[in-house]
């Protein structure tokens, strides 16, 4: 169905309240300079500030992929319309001076999908990916190719012509060639008949000489490649190699291999399964990377000696979860982006002692970062009051380089804080985020919504909470207290905590969530008679679990939820995800059934809203449809909305807006 207009949304809300029923977005141009005050601002208390709306959230500009120049003087970054959108229709590249002496400049035109910018080793040129058609291309639809620009010296020019486009690339250390990941020319396979799990045409490695345009292919037989990185001495390239291009193989079964550039031969496999590509040490002797922890639940960081193949775990002492690790400019120092309780920070890891220590404390969510030769760090991040910006850390100072969404300052935002409580089951400390309405008065209990996160190995952060999938600010701005719990199974407290829900979705983590609700009731924040719950993906699962196993919640919004682990394992595009928690059927069927909300539909006594993308391969539509149909067959109050053409993460702007409008209207009607 199409997204609701503002008028239709208002009408829907009125109908729900009265009856008790169970545009083309323009890219917001980044501000030319950051605010004079670069520290996080308190939540808006301006008297005439208004509540935030789905339209406000849809108009926010997102930012990612900050690339600091080798000398640290400038930063490239990519902006896109709308936050939390994995595949935007268009994006643009900007370049900003670290000292902010001049305003940021848009490097690309904003008409196409352009991103992945990378500085040449000497910092004079920038290569990037664009689906813009080359001036001399008279063929059909343009594919994503590499373009190079020398700012102030040379206009952008295309340098590759791969039939299916380029996946990713890396500069050679001497700046004379590129390592490119792309598919070889092949016959058109557009055909309605598909073989499930067929390997398909592999993605190969190509070395393209920039002066002559000559291209040399390096194929790894029986493997499709991703995440290319060149050793600083230029003799070797590290890649991830999987049997197919399917998500399950790429994510869970990608080997980390080192290839010889001259001969194209595979020198060594450093790890049978790696989550990230390799970051090389300055001396080209070692690489750092992340890989699945035991049983693929959790993440570990490693350093491997390339010559011997010896692999060591690093940062294991961190009370958190490492998401990204890179070598700094120092021989024995690594930098890692890590989730620590409810904060995403950058920590330092000593490669000799393998121990982690705080480095860039940050109140927010850091999504990615890069490091200059002089140690300056550029990262993309949000804070509770800043949806998305580029920050610079250097000389022990932290500075916001951009101010991408200044319009937020005129909106009444909820306050955001970390909270913690103790599990009544075993004394485990549980962390979460609390978002309170702008006008909250202590001692005045509020209608309250619990929002559960996806994963389960994800975590809520004390950061911006407003997008199509993050509803906390939308709800808080309209009078709700919102609890964002990180129960066991979440990231942020190490791998043992993440593994705490093995064989026990719902049975081992739901108590952590309700203990948080009890804490809010005891503090006089939550009104126990007006509680709701909602979430997407695994958050949808916990919401379905709540209404099938508990009577405290008056309603639930269940988004793209796995409701039956057995059929999920047999139908999802990532079967290894489910079986890592439960084991293989038929031996695991009893455990799976114990964690299936679908098996307890008769216990539901409150109205439920089910939302799902029709083309969801991760959690197939049948999971949500079965839950909804089962409720209706039993005469239970339920509604369901599906979104045509949408995968697990909803991308269409009208659909994203519709989800937010429906969520707010639904909770208003039932709380």
TrEMBL record:
Keywords: Hydrolase, Protease, Serine protease, Signal. The keyword Hydrolase applies. InterPro entries: 6-blade_b-propeller_TolB-like, AB_hydrolase_fold, Peptidase_S9_cat, WD40. Residues 29-51 are annotated as: Disordered. Residues 472-671 form the Peptidase S9 prolyl oligopeptidase catalytic domain. Pfam families: PD40 (PF07676), Peptidase_S9 (PF00326). The keyword Phosphoprotein does not apply. Residues 1-33 form the signal peptide. Transmembrane segments: none annotated. This is S9 family peptidase. It comes from Novosphingobium decolorationis.
């Amino acid at each position: 169905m199409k997204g609701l207009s503002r008028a239709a949304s208002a009408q829907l809300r009125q109908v729900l309240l009265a009856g008790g029923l169970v545009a083309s977005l323009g890219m917001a141009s980044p501000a030319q300079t950051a605010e004079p005050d670069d520290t996080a601002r308190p939540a808006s208390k301006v008297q005439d500030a208004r509540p935030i709306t789905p339209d406000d959230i849809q108009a926010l500009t997102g930012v990612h992929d900050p690339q600091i120049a080798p000398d640290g003087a400038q930063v490239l970054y990519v902006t896109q319309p709308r936050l939390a959108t994995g595949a935007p229709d268009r994006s643009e590249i900007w370049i900003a001076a670290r000292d902010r002496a001049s305003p940021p400049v848009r490097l690309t035109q904003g008409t196409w999908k352009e991103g992945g910018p990378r500085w040449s080793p000497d910092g004079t040129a920038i290569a990037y990916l664009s689906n813009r058609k080359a001036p001399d291309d008279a063929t059909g639809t343009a594919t994503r190719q590499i373009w190079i620009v020398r700012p102030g010296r040379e206009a952008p020019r295309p340098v590759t012509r791969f039939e299916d486009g380029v996946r990713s690339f890396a500069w050679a250390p001497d700046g004379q060639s590129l390592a490119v990941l792309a598919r070889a020319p092949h016959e058109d396979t557009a055909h309605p008949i598909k073989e499930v799990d067929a390997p398909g045409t592999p993605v190969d490695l190509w070395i393209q000489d920039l002066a002559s345009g000559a291209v040399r292919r390096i194929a790894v037989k029986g493997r499709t490649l991703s995440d290319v990185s060149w050793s600083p001495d230029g003799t070797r390239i590290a890649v991830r190699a999987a049997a197919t291009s399917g998500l399950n193989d790429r994510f869970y079964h990608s080997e980390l291999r080192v290839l010889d550039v001259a001969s194209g031969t595979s020198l060594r496999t450093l790890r049978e399964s790696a989550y990230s590509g390799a970051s090389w040490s300055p001396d080209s002797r070692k690489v750092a990377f992340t890989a699945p922890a035991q049983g693929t639940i959790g993440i570990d960081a490693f350093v491997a000696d390339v010559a011997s193949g010896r692999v060591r775990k690093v940062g294991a002492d961190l009370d958190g979860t490492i998401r990204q690790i890179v070598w700094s400019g120092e021989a024995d120092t690594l930098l890692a982006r890590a989730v620590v309780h409810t904060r995403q920070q950058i920590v330092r890891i000593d490669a000799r002692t393998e121990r982690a220590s705080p480095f860039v404390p940050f109140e927010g969510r850091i999504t990615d970062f890069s490091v200059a030769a002089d140690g300056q760090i550029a990262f993309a991040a949000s804070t509770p009051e800043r949806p998305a910006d580029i920050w610079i850390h250097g000389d022990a100072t932290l500075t916001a380089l951009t101010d991408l969404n200044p319009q937020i300052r005129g909106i009444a935002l909820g306050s955001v804080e970390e909270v913690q409580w103790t599990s009544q089951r075993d004394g485990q400390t549980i962390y979460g985020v609390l978002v309170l309405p702008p006008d909250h008065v202590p001692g005045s209990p509020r209608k309250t919504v619990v929002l559960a996160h996806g994963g389960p190995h994800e975590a809520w952060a004390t950061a911006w909470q407003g997008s199509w999938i993050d509803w906390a600010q939308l709800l808080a701005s309209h009078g709700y207290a919102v609890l964002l719990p990180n129960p066991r199974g979440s990231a942020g407290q190490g791998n043992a905590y993440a593994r705490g829900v093995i064989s026990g979705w719902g049975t081992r983590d739901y108590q952590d969530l309700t203990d948080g609700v009890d804490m809010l009731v005891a503090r006089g924040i939550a009104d126990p008679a007006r509680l709701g719950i909602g979430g997407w993906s695994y958050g949808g699962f916990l919401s379905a679990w709540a209404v099938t196993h508990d009577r405290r919640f008056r309603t639930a919004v269940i988004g793209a939820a796995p409701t039956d682990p057995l059929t999920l394992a047999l139908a999802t595009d990532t079967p290894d995800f489910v079986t890592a928690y439960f084991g293989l059927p038929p031996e695991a069927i009893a455990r799976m059934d114990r964690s299936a909300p679908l098996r307890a539909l008769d216990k539901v006594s409150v109205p439920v809203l089910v939302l799902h993308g029709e083309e969801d391969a991760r959690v197939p539509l049948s999971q949500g449809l079965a839950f909804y149909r089962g409720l209706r067959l039993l005469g239970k109050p339920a509604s369901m909305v599906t979104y045509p053409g949408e995968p697990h993460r909803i991308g269409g702007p009208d659909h994203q807006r519709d989800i937010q409008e429906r969520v707010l209207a639904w909770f208003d009607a039932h709380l």
